[in-house]
Write a structure and sequence with these properties.
Elements: E1 14-18, E2 24-27, H1 29-35, H2 39-42, H3 57-68, E3 73-80, E4 86-97, E5 103-111, H4 115-144
Length: 146
């Protein structure tokens, strides 16, 4: 049955890497297991294959703006599995650089988020989604930065 919440351990980490366009180039065993896909199905796919519709687009806009600008970001993300189940993560996304400080790829390490944080994030994301549906990205962004 789809739409079941999956969890992972407090001391476990989901790790993935993407190229500059967001295509998956690496996923650790936990990343693969949680996604519900086989490794071959994930490699070279856009990372948004895991995107859950409950996460507002403005969150991804902010995330991409930060990492493409050479900065790290921490974000709460709800991911969707191949079967339609979901899991929440607290993601730390960073750009990787070559010797000339050019961004070569992106690296994300995700841990289990606290319930207390999700009690704040879930209603915030629901509000941002409402704003996005009513007034587009600009309305959602204005609400986020309030």
């Amino acid at each position: 049955m789809a739409n079941q919440e999956l969890t992972f351990g407090e001391n476990e980490f989901i790790v993935s890497k993407t190229d500059l366009k967001g295509k998956i180039t690496y996923g650790n065993a936990l990343f693969i297991k949680m996604s519900g896909y086989d490794e071959e199905e994930l490699i070279d796919q856009p990372h948004n294959i895991l995107r859950h519709e409950d996460v507002p687009a403005v969150v991804f806009k902010l995330l991409w703006n930060r990492v493409q600008g050479g900065k790290e970001i921490f974000a709460y993300v709800k991911n969707k599995t191949k079967k339609g189940d979901y899991y929440w993560v607290f993601a730390h996304v960073t750009p990787s650089f070559d010797a000339n400080r050019q961004i070569t790829n992106y690296h994300s390490v995700r841990r289990k988020p606290s319930q207390k944080a999700l009690e704040v994030i879930k209603p915030l994301y629901a509000l941002l989604l409402q704003k996005e549906k009513a007034g587009g990205m600009a309305a959602s962004e204005a609400t986020l930065f309030e």
